[in-house]
Write a sequence for this structure.
């Protein structure tokens, strides 16, 4: 195979995109990774691969991902900038504690490539495969055709999450490695409450522009500051869902988790993602006239949450209190809302008339009211 025969990733929409800046360069990145870095065991040249051995995989807006079949086995190659090293660190930490996640085979920074705006990080992991030795479907894709299996599929997902949360981090809370850039003089929070308060302060301007009263925000900040959390944080997935888990077996259901957006913090953060999925789905149903499809989606989200909690508890995970989860939900809404508003504006819609903006804003408002009573 030649470089110009490697598939190119499609463009994606968004306020900023690593994919759009790098998608045409990705084939050259792959050549460098194979022929210069030697990061894929058993493959030293593109000439050893055919077009059937390379496929593009979904990567959101932050990653360019290839599936590579080499010597009868699949590996996954990911290129990204921000967070690439942290992702590899987290997966290795979870593997050390025996969690059901994909194994990292190699990671690092590509050699300098002419015209690059920023360093490109790479990671090679095992490919999560099914019984036919093909890259496994995600649990989300499987449940589209088998919604009645949502709880059963989610139980091993919860067991995996409990295993992941056994990976205790050394020091500090929040973003680590190359997940973010600290400003001069900015220290790493030494407790989870401190991280949450700092996160809120960064978004206070957004909340004020949305019409939230300053007194309510101060009351919420004081409430968070009084919360008591463990002194040590754990490695959190940060984007935990059926979308980021591969269904590697059906009898029984078995999964492998991949594609984290990791931070160091409290387990409530990963559980809050699933709670928000349910809350958002409920609100979409309320906003819609044609509700049946959305009701089915809500049923899947609720059964998934139930199954994850069951598996999580059975594997020794300690479910967080409602206050901690509600706080994490609110913080995640703060992150999501500007993205929803951007997309609404791009479509020429006012956020007040955009369902996706409203479901996030309403969830955020509900959690602030709940935590400032």
């Amino acid at each position: 195979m030649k470089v110009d025969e490697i598939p190119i990733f499609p463009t994606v929409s968004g306020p900023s995109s690593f994919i759009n800046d790098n998608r045409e360069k990705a084939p050259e990145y792959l050549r460098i990774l194979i022929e210069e870095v030697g990061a894929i065991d058993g493959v030293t040249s593109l000439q050893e691969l055919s077009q059937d051995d390379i496929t593009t995989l979904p990567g959101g807006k932050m990653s360019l991902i290839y599936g590579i079949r080499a010597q009868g086995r699949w590996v996954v190659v990911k290129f990204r900038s921000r967070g690439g090293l942290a992702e590899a660190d987290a997966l290795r930490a979870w593997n050390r504690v025996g969690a059901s996640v994909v194994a990292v085979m190699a990671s690092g920074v590509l050699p300098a490539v002419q015209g690059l705006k920023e360093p490109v990080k790479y990671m090679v992991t095992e490919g999560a495969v099914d019984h036919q030795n093909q890259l496994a479907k995600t649990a989300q894709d499987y449940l589209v055709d088998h919604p009645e299996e949502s709880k059963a599929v989610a139980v091993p997902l919860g067991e995996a999450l409990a295993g992941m949360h056994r990976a205790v981090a050394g020091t500090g809370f929040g973003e680590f490695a190359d997940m973010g850039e600290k400003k001069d003089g900015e220290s790493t929070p030494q407790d989870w409450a401190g991280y949450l308060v700092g996160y809120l302060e960064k978004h206070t301007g957004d909340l004020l522009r949305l019409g939230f009263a300053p007194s309510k925000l101060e009351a919420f900040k004081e409430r968070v500051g009084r919360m008591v959390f463990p002194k040590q944080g754990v490695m959190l997935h940060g984007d935990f869902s059926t979308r980021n888990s591969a269904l590697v077996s059906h009898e029984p259901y078995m999964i492998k988790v991949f594609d984290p957006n990791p931070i160091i913090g409290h387990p409530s953060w990963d559980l809050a993602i699933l709670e928000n999925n349910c809350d958002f789905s409920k609100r979409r149903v309320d906003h819609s006239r044609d509700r049946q499809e959305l009701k089915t989606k809500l049923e899947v989200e609720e059964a998934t949450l139930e199954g994850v909690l069951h598996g999580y508890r059975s594997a020794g995970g300690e479910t967080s209190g409602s206050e901690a989860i509600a706080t994490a939900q609110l913080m995640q809404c703060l992150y999501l809302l500007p993205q929803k508003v951007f997309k609404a504006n791009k479509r020429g819609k006012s956020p007040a008339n955009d369902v996706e903006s409203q479901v996030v804003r309403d969830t955020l408002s509900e959690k602030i009211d709940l935590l400032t009573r």
